[in-house]
Amino acid sequence: MRTSRLQLLAAAGVAVASLALTACQDGTGTRDEGASASQPVASTPSDASSQAPEESASGGGGNGSTANGSTGSGGDTAGSGESGSGSKGSSAGKGSAPGGSDDAPATFNPCNGSNTSVSAAPVSRPVNHMLITVKNTGSKNCDLTYYPVLRFDEMQWVPQPVEESKPQAVVTLAPGESAYAGVLLSAADGSGSGGATGKKLTVGFQGRTPNSDGGPAAIPSLPAAGVYYDSSLTVTYWQSSADDALTY
Question: How far is the CA of 97 from the CAs of 5, 86, 103, 106, 181, in angstroms?
Fold first, then answer.
């Protein structure tokens, strides 16, 4: 009897345990495991993080707009600066124009055969030299530019100047003043060629620019025997003193 009762109790316990296990498998425990398994799949954090770049981009766009505004303003400022610089350049240009007009040359009045008296005479020293003298006979100053252009008779070539005799400034003669030019007629050692005796001398005057016409020429008197010259014939620039003219 006791054994049968124990067996019945044991069978009842197994039945109760089976019911409890069944209850556990069909209860909230199973749901809890499902819930905990579903948590890592939640998309909210990823959605939030996916929205962050959009917000950042939007915010960056706002900052970019501000930066563009600043850059634009800076560009306007730079433009204003350039405009100001350009205005200064224009002012400088305007300033230089009057300066150019203020530097206009003084009135030029050439000495020539119409307002001077001209003489030409051979000298004893240095040998084979002649001195040309020009005296202002006019009523106002006149200017002697460069050097006299000499021509004996029908000579077809023009004597060259002595470049070392070029003065620092144009020689200006007041009324009654004189200027000079020295002439080397021929080589002292006889090395010149094409020697001839000139009977007539024409003295030409230059204008403001080299080889330009300075006005009427002069024809000074020569010795009756004439003046001998050869290919060595040269002339100095106009000088303020006879000594300077005969130095070359």
Answer: 138, 17, 10, 18, 40
Q: What pLDDT score was predicted for residue 39? A: 42
pLDDT of residue 203: 98
Peptide bond into 126 cis (omega under 30): yes
Q: Cα 163 vs. chain centroid, distance in angstroms?
A: 33
Query: What is the distance between the alpha carbons of residues 230 and 29, in angstroms, rounded to a whole number?
Result: 142
The whole-number mean pLDDT for each consecutive block of 10 residues of the chain, a chain of 248 residues, reads 50 47 43 42 38 40 42 41 39 32 62 98 96 98 98 95 96 98 94 94 96 97 96 97 96
Residue 13 CA, chain-centre distance (Å), reads: 116
Q: What is the 3-state secondary structure (H, E, C) of 149-185?
A: EEEECCCCCCCEECHHHCCCCCEEECCCCEEEEEEEC
In three-state secondary structure terms, 81 is: helix
Cα 88 off chain centre by: 17
- One-letter amino acid of 192: G
DSSP string, 186-230: S-TTS---S-EEES-EEEEEE-SSTT-B-S--B-----TT-EEE-
Beta-carbon neighbour count of residue 217 at 10 Å? 17
The residue among 178, 181, 163 whose CA lies nearest residue 120 is 181
The kind and range of the H/E element at 145 are strand 142-152
**CA–CA distances in Å: residue 185 to residues 33, 93, 128:** 135, 54, 5
